[in-house]
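Structure tokens please, single chain.
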Amino acid sequence: MELGQVFTFSALASQFLVGLSRAMILFIVCSGMSFVLGVLRVPNVAHGSLYMIGAFSAFSIASLFGSSSTGFWLALIISPLVVALVSLIAERVLFCHLYEREHLMLLLFTFALMLILGDLVKLTWGADYRSIMAPPFLRGSVPIFGSAFPRYNLFLLIIGPIVAVSLWLFTNKTKIGKISRAAAVDREMVGAVGINVSWVFAAAFVIGCYLAGLGGALVAPTVSVTIGMDHDIIIEAFLIVTIGGLGNMWGALVGSLIFGLTQAFGVLFWPQFAIVFPYVAVLIILIWKPTGMLKSVW
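Here you go.
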């Protein structure tokens, strides 16, 4: 479409829904990163690698069942658990010894872990492009506002709010969620009342990484699963949690919506430069409010 073209309401509405569905994937991944940032104060660069492991694990599990619906649903359930297990091992063996170090050291450590995990994924699955088929009832499209909209994108529009509400209920209504919030504010005081802060941190890290794996499994039917997909998502994730407010879950949602919608409408209005639109929005927000749109927990 050419710049300056008159767009119909149908085209605008369709692109809005596309942007929303993309934002839901970004939110699921970024909410996990934001949760880890909020509780552990760890800028986890390896978060994108765990997202990639989730996508590749989903491919392997789904491949065992061919194109049946069973394979997809099992992949959606099991692959985030695989990522959670990997993250638990990494946290207990490595991360738990580094929480008191400065942020730069943690950043460098997680960057090294990202490189290691990337090589392990390449050794395990190879460098070929992979793909996953959505179950039959989520294939094809449905008419919305006069345009065809993918059924799978509608599924993502349902999953995103479910994850948001579930994470909010966990952090505000469960005992471990409340302890995690307390540890984020004053970890010494939490330890002083007899709570094992080390395992609280482990649980928070695993939950955040589980969400990265879930995002990878959900995105697998919509993109090519390949080496390097972690690099793209980690750049976007860091920008989103920064403009939303470090460690703020609702900030991650707001940032994801901004990123997804500006990208979607960029494709509609000026497709040659669509990739630039989200970064322009990020630049404007950071100039206007360097600390992020919502309150940072740091």
